[in-house]
Design brief:
Helix content: 25-40%
Radius of gyration: 18 Å
Oligomer: single chain
Number of domains: 1
CATH superfamily: Vaccinia Virus protein VP39
CATH class: Alpha Beta
Strand order of the largest sheet: 3-2-1-4-5-11-10
Number of strands: 11
Length: about 240
């Protein structure tokens, strides 16, 4: 089952104060680059996986989407989303992403922002997404960049014979990571960039675009703290076709 950290009271309180929670899409520095990957959204049936407060769901409708379904595991997030949405063409549903089941050939666009790095069986979820899209339709998503999810750790595992075997939490050591972010013990899944792309190809997607996001000069001019994000990419943005 997906770790439902967003319903933790302490975590939710902290998350609600973040810029992207208060300002919505405009508070997410990577949003302009992610938006540029989207197809013309007019008339599309859209699925937002990990919809949170519903910011993208409402944006999609404002830009002409015919119908939008937002799915999230967090009751707190969905309650906030429903309270700030007055649009009968937007539906919010609670579901565990690890157990996700979607109707076949039902959507023209699947969108997901910073969710897939929480999913342990991502190949199953990607297969389900692929099945739910019409041929020629799009998947656009962001995750924390693999460089960001695999912090450097100089320690080595020592086998019984006293030999070094592999570094702890190295980039090529995929699997769960426990991190402290807003609260302790948040579990994220580390995968390499090659694993993300290979998984998409394996389930039948055609890659459209990949961006290792970093702030633009203009963004740094308006928010000087973003200059730190040029040390390594914080986000991986991907678009693909069914």
């Amino acid at each position: 089952m997906t770790q439902n950290i967003y319903d933790d009271e302490k975590f939710f309180a902290g998350y609600s104060r973040l810029g992207r929670s208060v300002e919505g899409l405009d508070g997410a520095a990577e949003w302009p680059a992610l938006r540029a990957m989207l197809p013309d959204i007019r008339g599309l049936k859209v699925l937002d996986l990990g919809c949170g407060f519903g910011w993208f769901c409402r944006w999609a409708r404002q830009h002409g989407a015919a119908e939008v379904l937002g799915i999230d595991v967090s009751e707190r997030m969905l309650k906030r989303a429903a309270a700030t949405t007055q649009d009968p063409a937007i539906t919010y549903t609670r579901a565990d992403m690890e157990l996700l089941e979607l109707p076949a050939a039902s959507f023209d666009l699947v969108y997901s922002s910073l969710v897939f790095h929480y999913i342990s069986d991502l190949e199953r979820v990607m297969s389900e997404i692929h099945r739910s899209l019409h041929p020629g339709s799009s998947l656009v998503f962001s995750v924390e960049h693999p460089i960001y999810t695999a912090p450097s750790d100089p320690r080595w595992v020592i086998d019984p014979a006293g030999r070094k075997s592999w570094p702890v939490n190295g980039y090529l050591c995929e699997g769960p990571r426990s991190v402290d972010w807003l609260t302790s013990g948040v579990i994220k899944q580390h995968r390499t960039l090659a694993t993300y792309t290979g998984l998409l190809l394996r389930v039948g997607f055609v890659l459209g675009g990949i961006e290792e996001w970093g702030p633009t000069d203009q963004q740094i001019e308006s928010r000087a703290e973003l200059a730190d994000e040029r040390q390594r990419p914080m986000f991986l943005l991907v678009s693909a076709k069914r």
